[in-house]
Design goal:
mainly alpha, 8 helices
């Protein structure tokens, strides 16, 4: 919960900066006569309001930090703002740019908030793309999008793999963080299952190092250095286990 609170608070400034950069990109790449000023201002205003509201809630009421609707609201506002910007500034044939931008939001959602939110971001991205590419009347005249189903299929494959990988990494990091917290509280009798992963990677090696450190530390503080017998601390730990 505390980690999620910190993530929400520092990411709000990233969102403000991204909004400014997106506005500058729209101005520089589009002609003045093609820019829909009022719709874009409405999108920017609504986006800023949502980000500011979530940050305010997190600051004033830390209890609500763990509520799943907070990150879901942020991810929804990110994707809706991106889709609206593409819709108001691009001809229909290039609306697949939104899927490219969504590939940034989807794995980040899975990495910071878990697989469920990553899957939600992936599905919402697909719905928004279908809306701006085919369901809604084009805001700017131009050629129709090409191969909407193919674009969705490619996006689904890439986004699905990224969501799985980043979400699984976060779940394993949660295991390691819980293991460290248990050791911090003085319980050295546990074992980290993460250290025996079927497909080892750098996180597995880190878990093995932590597990070895725990074993060595438990041996040092749980035995008498002269006789090698278990001391009272080790006895209490065994009884507790």
């Amino acid at each position: 919960s505390e980690l999620q609170r910190e993530v929400v608070l520092w990411q709000r400034w990233v969102r403000y900066v991204a909004l400014v950069l997106a506005g500058a990109a729209v101005i520089l790449t589009g002609g003045a006569q093609d820019i829909a000023v009022m719709p874009l201002l409405a999108v920017a205003g609504g986006y800023i309001a949502v980000v500011f509201f979530v940050g305010l809630v997190v600051q004033r009421s830390p209890v609500t930090t763990s509520r799943p609707w907070l990150p879901a609201l942020l991810v929804t506002s990110d994707l809706v703002a991106m889709a609206a910007t593409i819709y108001f500034t691009s001809v229909p044939i290039v609306t697949n740019r939104f899927l490219i931008l969504a590939l940034l939001s989807v794995p980040l959602a899975a990495f910071y908030f878990g697989t469920v939110l990553g899957a939600y971001a992936m599905l919402l991205s697909a719905v928004l793309y279908v809306a701006i590419a085919g369901a809604l009347t084009p805001f700017l005249p131009g050629a129709a999008p090409i191969s909407i189903p193919a674009n969705l299929a490619l996006f689904g494959i890439v986004a699905g793999v990224l969501t799985y990988l980043f979400g699984r990494f976060r779940a394993r990091m949660n295991q390691l963080r819980l293991f460290c917290k248990i050791i911090e509280e003085g319980d050295l009798a546990g074992h980290l299952e993460l250290s025996s992963a079927k497909y080892p990677d750098d996180l597995t090696l880190l878990a093995r190092s932590f597990d070895a450190m725990r074993s060595g530390l438990a041996e040092q503080i749980g035995t008498d250095p002269l006789t090698g017998l278990l001391n009272r601390r080790a006895l209490e730990a065994r009884l507790k286990a």
